[in-house]
Every structure is written in C-alpha cells, then in structure tokens.
C-alpha cells in the first residue's frame, strides 16, 4: 500500500538558524499576524502606521534583538535580526511597515551601535531600542543616489562642531525621525574619502522636513525630503572618524542588502502559500485552476525561485555573520582593510541581485494566477507587487550590484 506523507507544515532547520531562532520566528509570526497584518490595508490608506508601533515592537524586544542587554537590547546577534526581517514579510507585515521598522532597526541604528561613542549609545541607541526615538539614515540626495561619492550636503568645520547645509531625499522614516544618521561632505574634493557621518536631531534649528513624498508602494512607510540650512551640529555628534564615512556606508550597505534579500525570501514564501491555496480552491472549466498544466508550471518556477533565493541568502548570511567578532575588533582598531570588514560582500551582493528581481517576478506570476482578483486590493497581491518593485532600486540598484560583481571578477 502506498504510504501517505503528511505535510506538517514544519520547516527544516537550516543553518545558521538554531532552535532558539525558530522560537523567535514563531513569536514574531504570531505578533505580526495578530497585531500588524489585520491593519496593513488601513495603514497603507492612511499612508503611515501608528508611531506607537515602535513602542509596541520595543516592548516585545524586537527593536533591540542584536544589541547588548546593557543598552536595553536582547543580547542576540545578527541572525536574530535576520529572523525578524524575514518573518515580518513572511507573516504578511506589508512592505510599508517592514520598511519603517526595518529602516530603524536595520540601517539607522546599526552604525550608531558599531561606530558610536558611549555617549552616543546613551543619547541615541538606548532610546531607539526602547522605541522612544525613531531613527533614519540619510545618504541619498536629489543629485546623488548610486554615485554616493558625489553627495553635496556640506559640513563646514567651526570651533566646537560643524555647520551643515544641503538636502536629502527618499529618506525612509524621514518625516518622523527624531535623529538622522546623515552622510555629509567634510572635505571639498575628497571623493569617497571626504565623507563623514553626523547625527542630526530634528529639533536642531535649520533642520526641516521639506516634503513627504508620494510613492508607488511601501505606502504605510513615510518617505521624506529633508533640507538643512546652517544647522549647527556639535562635535559630539560626529559618528565614526572624520572623513571615514565611506567605511560606515560599506558596512551598512551589506547588512541592508542582506535584510532586503531576507525580506524578499519571506515575501515570496507568503505569496507562494497564498497563491497555492487560491489555485486549489478556484475552479474554471470544472476543475481547480492549479490542475491546469500552464499554472502548475508557474508554481514549479515560483518554488524554484524561492528555494534558490533562500539558499543563496542564507549562505550570504552565514558568510556575513561568521566574522562579526573580528569585524568589531577591526572597527575598534580603525583597521579598515581587515578582511572581516568586507566579509560576505560578494555573496551578499549576489543575494541582493537575485532575490529582488525574483520577488518581483514571483509577485507578478502570483497576480496572474489570481486573475482579476489579483488586481483587486482585497487580496493583497497587487500590494505585494507594488511593494516589491522597490527591491531592484533601493539599497543599491540591480545595475550597481552587477557593477560590483563585475569589478570583483577583475573586469
Ligand atoms: C521608497 C524609497 C526609500 C528609500 N530609502 C532611503 C533611505 O532611507 N535612505 C537613503 O539614503 N536612501 C534611500 N533611498 C534611495 C535609494 O537608495 C536610491 O533610490 C538608489 O540608491 C538609487 O539612486 P537614484 O534613485 O538616485 O538613482 P540613480 O543613481 O540616478 O540611477 C538611475 C538609473 O541609472 C542606473 N545607474 C546608475 N549608476 C550606474 C552605473 N554605474 N552603471 C549602470 N547603471 C547605473 C541605475 O541603476 C538606475 O537604473 C530610498 C529610495 C526609495 C525609492
């Protein structure tokens, strides 16, 4: 008699995840399903999610997973944060909420932790982990996106600090951020080596949110344009070494790109599950649509894209997280050429490149399988397609990823 293998729905334990990480995954999933997913439509329509969500996520420990207990964090590691990034997407958190919370935990606070002084940890990181202050990262400008070295926001040195003038755009959390980890030019013609980071605070005179931008997707997240006019920033707000900001950008981009890859894996797995259910239930020509060969083949492709994306992303995560202790030592010594600084660079770049396009293609195919219902708001598929379209652009475009990889091949 043929044995029937029951699909229990349990996922295999894949390294670097341990049973403890999987418990965290289940906790995050329960929270997102109960307190986030039911409100995603409403928050997208309002073009923001409540500020209180930061406090709630902080209460549950999610904003400080990888940060030291002494600063109010959970004392975990990057892998805990990886679970958070993947699971918010997999449990239906929506791109906007994922982006708003993710910009805070994944790109604004890590440089403060890594490069900040004990005083900066107390003033910015501790309240950020507690959800009391919201952070944003400001690199992009109207005239400088991919070409980071050409930023023009200037920080003129004066006794006791800097005077900042310039504009930033496309800044996630830019409208409500309490502090901005901001890339500035501190040397007129230094190219990459003339960039520094300053911690700008929203109440500083001359710091203005000039516009809330309207977007195609990620609707629940705020995206701001910021203008600085003679903003006086004290020396104690210099983050990392003066003119050493490029290393901070390098370190930050890697983690941002990995988080985006993890988010895409989470989103693809959710799309596959929802669309499979639909294809089993929806009937046409007297049978479930999933039984048409044309659609079965689509599922075969979607499943393959998901598993290849997952495998490469988890591999990149292992490569990235392995040398973390060495990386922290190298940063403390300001040894920017240490191999740990760029560990995983190639794999992270490949994972970002592969997953962002794959997720857009998967969302598009899932929409197709849903037919007209996929085009309707209530199924959430059209939102996934709009949200995921940012992937091949944000955090470094697909073209820039290909340039990095091409150069690594010596071309
Ligand atoms: C919703 C959203 C949120 C964002 N959040 C943030 C944030 O929080 N903080 C922040 O600092 N930035 C943020 N960004 C900015 C994002 O990182 C940039 O949009 C991205 O880096 C691309 O820059 P750009 O838009 O200026 O495009 P450009 O650099 O002007 O590129 C335009 C086109 O030219 C191509 N191109 C550029 N250079 C090359 C090259 N060398 N070879 C081949 N092709 C090339 C690009 O791939 C692209 O197709 C966000 C953007 C969006 C849309």
Assign the structural class, choosing from mainly alpha, mainly beta, alpha/beta, alpha+beta, or little secondary structure: alpha+beta
The run of helices and strands is HHHHHHEEEEEEEEHEEHHHHHH
How much β-strand is present in the residues? 5-15%
Helix content: 40-55%
Provide a count of the helices: 13
Described by strand count, sense and barrel closure, the largest sheet is: 4 strands, mixed
Give a list of the ligands: flavin-adenine dinucleotide
Rg over C-alpha atoms, rounded to the nearest angstrom:
22 Å
Overall number of strands? 10
First CA to last CA: what distance? 59 Å
Describe the structure.
There is one protein chain. The protein has 411 residues and is α+β, with helices and mostly antiparallel strands. 49% of the residues lie in helices and 14% in strands. It is built from 13 helices and 10 strands. Strands 1-4-5-8 form a 4-stranded mixed sheet, with helices on one face. A 4-stranded antiparallel sheet has the order 2-3-7-6, with helices on one face. The longest helix is centred in the middle third of the chain and has 37 residues, at 245-281. The protein is globular and about 80 Å long. The mean pLDDT is 94.
Give a topology summary.
Layout: H1 19-36, H2 40-46, H3 52-59, H4 78-90, H5 95-115, H6 118-129, E1 135-138, E2 154-158, E3 161-172, E4 179-185, E5 195-201, E6 207-212, E7 223-234, E8 238-239, H7 245-281, E9 283-284, E10 287-288, H8 293-321, H9 324-332, H10 345-369, H11 372-375, H12 381-388, H13 398-408
Parallel strand pairs: 1-4
Antiparallel strand pairs: 2-3, 3-7, 4-5, 5-8, 6-7, 9-10
The structure holds flavin-adenine dinucleotide.
């Amino acid at each position: 008699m043929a044995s029937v293998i029951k699909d229990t729905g349990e996922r295999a334990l894949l390294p670097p995840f341990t049973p403890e990480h999987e418990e965290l995954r289940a906790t995050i999933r329960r929270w997102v399903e109960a307190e986030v997913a039911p409100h995603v439509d409403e928050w997208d329509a309002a073009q923001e999610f409540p500020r209180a969500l930061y406090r709630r996520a902080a209460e549950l420990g999610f904003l400080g997973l990888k940060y030291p207990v002494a600063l109010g964090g959970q004392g975990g590691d990057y892998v805990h944060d990886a679970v958070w990034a993947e699971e918010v997407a997999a449990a239906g958190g929506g791109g906007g909420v994922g982006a708003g919370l993710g910009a805070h935990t994944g790109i604004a606070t890590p440089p403060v932790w890594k490069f900040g002084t004990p005083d900066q940890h107390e003033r910015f990181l501790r309240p950020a982990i507690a959800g009391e202050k919201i952070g944003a990262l400001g690199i992009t400008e109207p005239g400088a996106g991919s070409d980071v070295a050409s930023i023009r926001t200037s920080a003129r040195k004066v006794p006791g600090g800097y005077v900042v003038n310039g504009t930033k755009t496309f800044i996630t959390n830019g409208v409500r951020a309490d502090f901005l980890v901001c890339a500035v030019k501190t040397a007129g013609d230094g190219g990459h080596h003339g960039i520094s980071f300053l911690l700008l605070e929203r109440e500083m005179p001359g710091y203005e949110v000039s516009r809330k931008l309207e977007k195609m997707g990620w609707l629940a997240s705020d995206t701001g344009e910021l203008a600085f006019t003679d903003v006086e920033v004290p020396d104690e707000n210099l983050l990392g070494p003066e003119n050493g900001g490029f290393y901070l950008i390098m370190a930050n981009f890697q983690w941002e790109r990995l988080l985006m890859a993890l988010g895409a894996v989470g989103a693809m797995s959710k799309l596959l599950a929802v669309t499979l259910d639909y294809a089993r239930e929806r009937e046409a020509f007297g049978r479930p649509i999933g039984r048409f060969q044309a659609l079965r083949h689509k599922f075969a492709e979607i499943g393959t894209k998901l598993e290849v994306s997952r495998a490469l992303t988890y591999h990149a995560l292992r490569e990235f997280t392995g040398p973390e202790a060495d990386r922290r030592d190298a940063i403390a010594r300001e040894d920017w050429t240490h191999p740990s600084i760029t560990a995983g660079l190639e794999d992270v770049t490949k994972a970002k490149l592969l997953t962002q396009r794959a997720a857009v293609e998967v969302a598009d195919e899932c929409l197709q399988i849903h037919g007209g219902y996929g085009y309707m708001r209530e199924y959430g598929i059209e939102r996934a397609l709009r949200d995921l379209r940012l992937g091949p652009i944000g955090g470094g475009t697909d073209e820039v990823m290909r340039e990095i990889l091409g150069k690594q091949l010596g071309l």
